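Open question from group meeting: does this chain pack into something compact, or does most of it stay loose? Before anyone orders reagents, we agreed to write out a predicted structure and look at it together. Recording both the input and the output here so the notebook holds the full record.
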Amino acid sequence: MATYLDEKELLPSYTAAVEEARKHTDRFDEYDRLAANGIRPNLPKNYPEVNDGTLSSMLDENVKRVFQKLYSGKFSAYDRSDAWFDELVNVLWTRYIIPGANTDADFFTKFWNLMYRAEKYGSNPFFCFFSTRDDYTGGDWVIDNPRDVYLEPGKVSADSSNYLWRNSYMTKLDLQNLIEQAQAENADAAKTKRDSFNTWDVELLQQYVNAGPGGKDDQNKNRTEKQRQIQSPYFTFATAYHKGFNAPFLTIIPSMTGQVVRTRENENPSGATPIGFAYHTQDLESPYGRGLVQKAGHTQNVLDYFKAADVLATQMGVEPPTKIKGSEQSLTGFVESSIIYAPRQKWRVGNGDANPVDLSNGVYDQLQSRMSNYKTDLMNQLGIFDTSVSSTVGNPQFSKTPAGVANLNTRTNVNDNFFSRSGAAAFKQLAERLMNIHLANMEGTEPYGLLEDEVERLQKAGWAEASKNITLVWKNLRGKMCFEVDDPTSINDEETQGLKEVITTLTENNGAAVSLIEGDGDYRVDLGEAYRQYFGKFQLPNLDKIIVPVDSENSEAANGGPAPQPTQPGAANGQGQATPAGRAPSSSINYKDAPPDIQAQMEAAEGWRPSPTHAPALQAAMQPPQPPAPATPAPTAPQAPQHLPITPENAAQLSQEHDATKQQYGVDEHGAAIIMAARRAGVPEAKIAEGMAAARANATKGNQQ
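Structure tokens returned:
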């Protein structure tokens, strides 16, 4: 049996959790300043208020690069086996909860900000709840201030904590409305002789209102509240969220000796608390993880200092200080107001002397190189590469060679992939909490409209009654849901890249690699399977509609649909049928197993000159009837008849025709072979010339565009 905090332990537990948390979060103010590119509070006197700002821009750029869209994935129920139920939950997720869970901002904006704060602080909490608004009823969530969520003392992560504390704040009007709603519910329950749904202690709430609001502790304020010294009057509550299904959620008023003002139970069937954490790097030492600011903040401070120093030195170089020689008593006729840096300005120095001070020295001369050095150090700590750093300055250990740049880009991808996986873990927590809270709290019935594609998916999953207009009976839609995120890095993994290389190799050079692999008859290349595996890496929702199994086509034909047409000789009624124009035969044959005429055609199709033994077979297979002469004489290859028979005896003449064709049309070996094959297929020379001219025109147009 699970053990929970009792009422006497609540306030001491809360106090201990707050004290331990602040030992970690007290540095968050500095993280906020660096992330916002704020000016150092201890900037030396007379230094200009300017920063380098690399870390700030990289934080923003990094999260924008990694998180450009929401993750995809699939829900499934732990405690029921209805495939249609899982599919329906997935429909509700994409079309109902994601668009509707928009308290504070839309879903994507909130998730983007959540991961931005995670890389800034190391982690950031979020809070899920059941929302009832005019336009939406269902699971919703908000981003929490990490200074307001406290882990169980002694734990190294939110996952290992048995309970978490969370502060919440209400204005006086919020609290008065809450009291009125609670009183109305209690009165209605008494009138109808039922249990009240109210979970608040109304009498204690009224005492709190009478005592008056306090305000946020300074250590709980965010950067904006501190900078603008906002002192809004708030009523502060703290809730202990225990883990476990039906575990107690106990809310206290810390300023009133920790009295319990509300008691609820955890309705999430998974037992998770409504508080989740998004981590950047979870090191299992600090309960709040490690972020990029912690790693690179000190180096950024050095860069900011030297940036301000460089601007100051530049200002002094443009408007240098002036050295005035002599005491005030001896400077007869010296007019200090005349010492102005302007063209043709006259300085009236009398019997004194005034000269600009030259401040140039070796330290200043090397300042830019030193700053580049520090900047490469910062890039190194962030695990990314900045190509704006010149190859002639900076850290010589930071490779600028092509191989080094490639390795650094790989390193950036590795860090991006790691951050993306951290985001996927947070998104899984978020999705599961939202859906479980949604299904546990929805009551009654609700009409719902399905799209045609959704109807098809639900029917295929076994819900035969699915239609465009359905009625959801929520008591029948309960389940403990799990969410599996599609691998966000799958399209960049080694297997996917390997498949891409295989497909490229097999398809380039007119399939030469396929011919070599299948040449001895021991192997067969299934290029379609390679494509299917490659496309499957992209988690396309309707891939089965793009690549349709052959069984599906046969089933369609059996149900009265169009049957696949035979394309091979002898496939229809035992009679030969020619392959449709523009379509290659659907079966393959190994070269060594083919009869001589087919071998000759395969040689010609690959652009090879047929061997002497195959020349007669090719002539018999390809020699067409003699076409009528064109009205306008077409140009012909010099010194070669248009339909010269292919025989061992005329090999020299064929070679001469081949070379003449290359010269006439300006094509390579393969192009000349194609043109010669076209001649023997009966294509008039005028048509060949016309086609070549059109091809060159299209190529020129494409290059210009």
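Observations to bring back to the group:
The chain has 23 helices and 14 strands.
Confidence is low (pLDDT under 50) at residues 392-398, 563-588, 620-644.
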